[in-house]
Amino acid sequence: MKIWRPGITAKLFLAILTTCIVLLISMHWAVRLSFEHGFIDYIKRGNEQRLQLLSEALAEQYATHGNWLFLRNNDRFVFQILRSLEHDSSDDRPGPGMPPHGWRTQFWVVDQNAQVLVGPRAPIPPDGTRRGIMVNGMEVGAVIASPVERLTRNTDINFDRQQKRTSWLIVGLATLLTALATFPLARGLLAPVKRLVEGTHKLAAGDFSTRVAATDADELGRLAQDFNQLASTLERNQQMRRDFMADISHELRTPLAVLRGELEAIQDGVRKFTPESVASLQAEVATLTKLVDDLHQLSMSDEGALAYQKSPTDVVSLLEMAAGAFRERFAQRGLTLTLRLPESATVFGDRDRLMQLFNNLLENSLRYTDAGGQLLIGAEKSAGLLTLQFADSAPGVTDKQLAMLCERFYRAEGSRNRASGGSGLGLAICVNIVAAHGGQLHAAHSPFGGVSIKVELPLDRDVSRDV
């Protein structure tokens, strides 16, 4: 048997409805208590006033007659006095012991010996309201009324019951209206949450193209915008991962195919096993080794696993050392290497990783610059930043190719292709190294017709302050 578990909409609906019901019942009892106390106080004050008037009227009659003989067994006389006091012209006579209109209790008239002169046969309540009948300073009798809390008239009892029924009916109707208003309110408030829940389920199932409508400008609206941004990032990362795997398989397939063909040719006797064939095999193995090394370096830099031992480092001296190591290779290809550097520029960085950065950039220009071209390395300091410029000559790239130049495994068409021996990972590794030093790397068109790589690194603050 499946147990029903309320959802968030039902919980919110029940919470609001329960709160409203508690408030309604509390208000009902508060109003009832206020009404009952007010109603009884009203009757009590009226009866006390009437008792006082009745005692004064009976005192005048006693002074006139000199005794209570006129009142014994003469209830009608008392009620006539009461009607005259109430200014009531009705001839309806109440039942025995019952007061006329305006009274809400039973009353008794007793003499000085506490003998009942007028009143019902019921015993006189000890807690009744008593008013003495005073004649010439002496108490010759008293008027006693039953407690106001004891409603005796049917109209009073019916009125009290009617008020109770009406108040409970109001509570019931208010509860129904609250339920009718609360349910759509709860659904409306939780509609964005439901959309987020459904979108999260789709996202968890691998549907990274899902999006939710961010119609509101409140916290839920901002949460929906963040959800859409997360979905976009996951979708982009998924596509990049697929492309990455496809690129790796493509990069590995070519040298492996060449190796297999060379080895099969030697095995079949089509090609002799000579030092030249061995050199060809070694070249393909070197290509595979370079690709694997670059992949390892890229994965390490992506995960932040590369060890960075930072200290104040003079970038100018590092660039001069890196350029000196490449100068002979540049000269062999007929390329001119020019440096325009300041005397010094200190950054807080890792010497080995920065040297790896410069070697990758120099290797990139060496591979992809036509013979007879040039590479200009410049550096400028401004506003706490060191800006390095690696600008080479033709061939250049288009704007579309330029935007993709730092992506993994990307190589532009033309001379900047696989024939140059590159893996297409050098610039991606450079981007990670620069980011680890708090800088940025950008690719732009070179004034010499090739590509210009701009590297911005923050200068070491302590050294800059001392200077």
Automatic annotation (TrEMBL):
The protein's matches in InterPro entries, at most eight in alphabetical order, are given as: 2C_sensor_his_kinase, HAMP_dom, HATPase_C_sf, HATPase_dom, His_kinase_dom, HisK_dim/P_dom, HisK_dim/P_sf, Sig_transdc_His_kin-like_C
Where's the Histidine kinase domain?
247-461
| Cell location | Cell inner membrane
Q: Which GO terms describe its molecular function?
A: ATP binding; phosphoprotein phosphatase activity; phosphorelay sensor kinase activity
What cellular-component terms does GO give this entry?
A: plasma membrane
Q: Which UniProt keywords apply?
A: ATP-binding, Cell membrane, Hydrolase, Kinase, Magnesium, Manganese, Membrane, Nucleotide-binding, Phosphoprotein, Protein phosphatase, Stress response, Transferase, Transmembrane, Transmembrane helix, Two-component regulatory system, Virulence
Stated membrane topology is: Multi-pass membrane protein
Name the catalysed reactions.
ATP + protein L-histidine = ADP + protein N-phospho-L-histidine
Xref: CDD domains: HAMP, HisKA
Q: Cross-referenced PROSITE patterns, in alphabetical order?
A: HAMP, HIS_KIN
**UniProt EC number:** 2.7.13.3
The record's principal subcellular location, in a coarse class, is membrane
Indicate what this protein is called per its UniProt record. Answer: Signal transduction histidine-protein kinase/phosphatase MprB
Its source organism is: Enterobacter lignolyticus (strain SCF1)
